[in-house]
Amino acid sequence: MHRFWFPIIFICLLFLSEGILSATAAVPVLRTDSLKVQKKGFDLHALPWRFHIADGRNYSNPAITDSTWTVTKTMFGSTEQPQGWKGSGWFRLWLKADEHLIGKMLALRIGQNGAAEIYIDGKKIGGTGKISKTKAETQAGRAPFSVFPFMVMDQQAHLLSVRYVNDQPTFPEYTGFQLWVGTYEQLAAGALDDLKMNGFLLASISAQLALVLLHLALFVFYPRQRLNLYYSLFVFSTASVLYLRYLTVGTADPYVQRITADLFEAGIIVVPFLAGILLYGVSYDRLPRRRIFITASLGALTLLDYFLEYRNTSVPTTTFWLEIFYFLLVVADGLLALVRAMIRKKPRIWLIGAGMLTITLFYLLVGSDLFGLMKGNYQLIAEWMSIGLLAIPVSFSIYLALNFADVNRSLTSRLKEVETLSALNLAQEVEKGRILTEQAERLEQTVAERTLEVRSQAQKLQEMDALKSRFMVNLTHEFRTPLSLIIGPASLLAEKAGTAIERQQGDLIRQNAQQLLLLINQLLDLSKLEDGKMEIAAAQTDILATSASVLAPFAGVVTQKQITIDFKSPFSQLHGIIDAEKLTIILRNLLSNAVKFSLTHGRILVDIALEKDHADDVLLLSIADQGIGISSLKLPYVFDRFYQADASDTRSNEGSGIGLALTRELVELLGGTINIDSTEHVGTTVRVKLPITNIQTKTGGEQYSLPADPEPVQEGEKDDFSDKGPLLLIIEDHEQLREFIRNTLGPQFRTVTASNGEEGLRLAGKYIPDLVITDLMMPGMDGYEVCNKIKEQELTSHIPVLMLTAKSAAESRTKGWEAGADAYLSKPFEPSELLALTEGLIRTRTQLQERYLREEAWKPSAGSLPPQEIRFIDRVRSVIEAQLGNELFGVDMLCDLVALSRAQLHRKLKSTTGHSPGDLIRMVRLQQALNLLKAGETTVAEVAYKVGFGNPASFSTSFSNYFGYAPSEVKNS
After folding, report:
1. pTM for this model (two decimals)
2. What phi, psi does 501 have (nearest 5°)?
3. Which domains does the chain possess?
4. Over residues 429-454, mean pLDDT
């Protein structure tokens, strides 16, 4: 398009009778009338200039010829640069002035974004920025309102030289410069008008910011009216755009101009967007999110087009029309929303519509000068746009003022209603006060009565608690005599026992009676502490000897559990005044807990030392284990009486919840402190600090371990796997009780034992016992789960289960029946009761076995077996029937095909059908032979081979022995 119009315009200029300038073959002439055509001055950048890549100021000298320089224009971009342009050079132009301009003050204005020096006949008259010898010292600069005066004194040709540097253009398409010439009065007046116009923007911005603050304040005081917020955002965006325009035009820094120009373009998109939100807020009760999303997306695309156009010069110039389209689209949609709101007869919405229509017309006719009415007069455009922009604040101010008036009237009306209601409420409050006074009096009387009642109840509770304590004390005292009569004879029996079993039984009675006595003593100590009757008997004590006496009884337990106790002290001798009895109880309780909760192959560290607490001596006891640990949620409660950190049926250790509670109270009685640190699945450390006086020590250190010489534990020595009598599986985590049950039942039954549910379940599948006796409360897998899994597994589903439990509640028994238990036995139990239940369950199973044998339970039609047994028999029979023709098929192959050992399959089939695997294979073959013979389609010999007999004679003998008649008689029958 530019290439089309340029020659036409050039030809027209040649034929103008009074042109802008007159030109000879070499030098243009400036005329007075031509300078008055444009207020800004005559465009020198439209003339052909001479360009040369050079440096140094001497090129402004008229004596240097420029006839060989490149002819070019000073206004160029990245795609139309002068030949050889590398960011700097000299531009020269020869001019003449007519006689009316001689001796008259002339001036130049320059528009560019680089650094320039302007010379007339080799004399510098001005410039912008700073040009130095190095690129780093050269600084670009703008002079938007500067005028550079000069004067010519003759009609000779004068040289205008511009030294120009712009090696890093902020606007790639405006790399060159523009230059205007005119009279000084003309250009100075134009520059002053431009400066005033740019300053006028600040006044408009100030007014708009005042509106922003006003409506923000209204929004803060009345948040329900969101229009104030939307309007504030819109006005703030317009003020921001104007300020960016002010900076873009007036800044002297090209880089600042680049940034503000980009932000200005972004603002051109944001302003219509916020205007749309404002219109939506006026028109709708709720903002339409979908419309807002669409307009925001279109605005982002328009802004993206701008940046692509700036960064890539090959993109067509479409941003201006996209901005116009976006503005029209958003405003049109907003006006459409206004029209719909007016159709809905929303009060006074037409005021906003009128204001928006006015500003839209001003934007199209004046702001964008779409139809050229303003003829490019920026000052005129700014003045009219300032007037047009008042339409929005005026319309919105009127609209919001009227709305505020409505709200005010509504509030006044409601205030009157509130006054009426207040008077009514006042009367009601007076009445309520009277009622409350009466109620308060009645309440005081009730509280007094209740207080008296509570005091009476508290006194009764104290009496009952004291009675309970006396009862517990008396009861525990009464326990001592029977326990003494148990411990004494048991010790004598163990000493004078004739057999190892009798000695073991005597030791078992004595050990458990002593354990019960220890529990009774702890209860008595708690009762004394509660009543404040526990006295301190401090005396000179050998601390290390006392500790050794506490550790010694644990040697057998740690050997059995395969754990190690390491004792350590920095002293070889430690004496001091302390209560030895209470120290013994504290150490024993803490060590008992550590041993109880330690895992196999774990270690327990007992450390006894001294430390200073201010000036006092303190005995420090530390016991650390590598046991199961305590959860951080349960740790705060471990010192509470009767608290169990693990109260589930699967806890691995028994306990009363007394030991730690008693320990803490004894420590506090002695004036000490106790702390416990524990990490679940890692271990627990207990630290006790006790005051001690009159200390006598000897250094050298004391260190030893229990057991001193650990013996290897042999497992399975007591299990009886002989092949005579029924086999019992005993699952019990308490070793002594497990051995007691084994010894009780051992003379009549074979036994195999397991210490936990997982091991018991594995042994049940391995040996297929005739009866399983399992405890209910065990670590890991409890008795319910063991019973349930035994009944679910095909291999063990037929085995009866006898469950031992310390729980007597009906709910516990019901849960056991649901898991498939065949019988229950509550602890404590008589050996005769255990033996009778065991014999009864074995006898019942034997009777069922005989019944299945009589009813030929192995046949497909048998319905007397449980469903799981039927499925197992069907699977075995299917394997046998699939191998009938295989003469080599036998028990070993059957075991491989059903994935069971020979012993497992034998015990399973014997328990369910009464037949061995070999008998079952023979019976299935003979039954199939009978069916084939009855069909009458084959001979006896052929039938024998079909059912896996290699010898027909052997087949006939087996057939006759099983059915009572020969195979040849089948057809006749």
Report:
1. 0.43
2. -65, -45
3. 2-191 (2.60.120.260), 222-389 (no CATH), 540-702 (3.30.565.10), 727-854 (3.40.50.2300), 867-969 (1.10.10.60)
4. 85
